[in-house]
Amino acid sequence: MEPDFWHRRWYKNEIAFHQERINLHLQSVWPALASTPPATVFVPLCGKSKDMLWLAEQGFDVIGIELSAIAVEDFFKENHLAPTVTTESTFKRYQSGRLTLLQGDFFELLTADLGGKVTVYDRASLIAFPPEMRPRYAKHLCALLTTGTQMLLISMEYPEHEIKGPPFSVPESEVRRLFEDEMHIEKLREMDVLAENPRFIQRGLTSLQEKVFKLVKR
């Protein structure tokens, strides 16, 4: 999936992948990370996720990166925030309080753009990529992180023949294969979340599992 795919999706408002509420499990699984304010949380492919609001309310500085300018501008507009906007060499930076969103290509991101050590929250990034792009994503993400960096990763698994992603089904075996060379991986939780996602039921999905992992950079 090239950038034009995502630009079209946001332009046409074809964003069924966007969750209008804060992730139901974020509050309960976040304490598994040894990350307390003040600290910075990095959210790759953040869209206009409301999870960033919850993280900021806990006292964390939040840095998100998002390809679509529509998504970034909608995030601030819908949450009644007036960001300061500056243009850098690679990204356009939107900042309001503890929230900073970089509008641009994740694959052009450098460690220096994160401003130091971060904790990573990936709820909708890995599952946004088709199989052929996931290794590139995992490799680039790991390259951005320093030893000891923690990541909370939420993946989903469903019968792939029933619907077409994104979001894509990423089985636990693939999560481990993608990250095990660079990260220590611990599965924290596995949940049946089909009932919580009626839009997937409407699309004909019969099973939907969310798996939560804690990863630590070696």
Give a structural overview:
This protein is globular. It has helices at residues 3-11, 26-29, 51-57, 69-78, 134-144, 172-179, 198-202; strands spanning 40-43, 61-66, 84-87, 92-96, 99-103, 119-122, 150-157, 183-192, 209-217. The protein is of the alpha/beta class and 218 residues long.
Record the SSE blueprint.
Blueprint: H1 3-11, H2 26-29, E1 40-43, H3 51-57, E2 61-66, H4 69-78, E3 84-87, E4 92-96, E5 99-103, E6 119-122, H5 134-144, E7 150-157, H6 172-179, E8 183-192, H7 198-202, E9 209-217
Parallel strand pairs: 1-2, 1-6, 2-5, 6-7
Antiparallel strand pairs: 3-4, 4-5, 7-9, 8-9
Outline:
The protein is of the alpha/beta class. It has 7 helices and 9 strands, in the order ααβαβαββββαβαβαβ.
Topology order in helix (H) and strand (E) letters? HHEHEHEEEEHEHEHE
Going by helix content, strand content and strand pairing, the class is: alpha/beta
Largest pleated sheet: 9 strands, mixed
Give the strand tally: 9
Helix percentage range: 10-25%
SS element count, helices = 7
Radius of gyration over C-alpha positions, nearest whole angstrom: 16 Å
Features:
25% helix, 218 residues, alpha/beta, 9-stranded mixed beta sheet, globular
